[in-house]
Each structure stands twice: as C-alpha cells, then as structure tokens.
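Data deposition worksheet. Section B asks for the primary sequence of the deposited chain exactly as it was used as input, without tags or linkers unless they were present during the calculation. Section C holds the resulting structure in token form. Section D is free text for depositor observations; keep each observation to a single sentence. Incomplete worksheets are returned to the depositor.
Section A, Depositor: J.P.
Section B:
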Amino acid sequence: MFGKLLPAGIGAVIGAIGNRLVGKKLVRNARSAFGAPPARWPVTLYVLPTVRDAS
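Section C:
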C-alpha cells in the first residue's frame, strides 16, 4: 500500500513547491507593476449592482 501512495505524495510535494514558486513570482511582479498596497484605503468601497439597458 505504501508503494502505491508514495508516487502521489511525491507528486503532491512537487506540485506544492511549484505552486509556491509561481505564487511568489506572481506577487513580486504585481508589486513591481502596481507598487505596494496602501496601508489604508482612502474611502469605503461599495459594490453596486450592474445597470442594464432596457433595449
């Protein structure tokens, strides 16, 4: 049974490491493109429903 689970465990570890590296690179590139996030947002943002045309 251990022999059947070992490849899945190795694949999970490799996948987790890959996801971590991609995520770190994505955040680094986003900070480079947009700058650091503000410590506090200037105003409260409200999500409004979309307005649809009657046509």
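Section D:
Helices lie at 2-34.
The mean pLDDT is 88.
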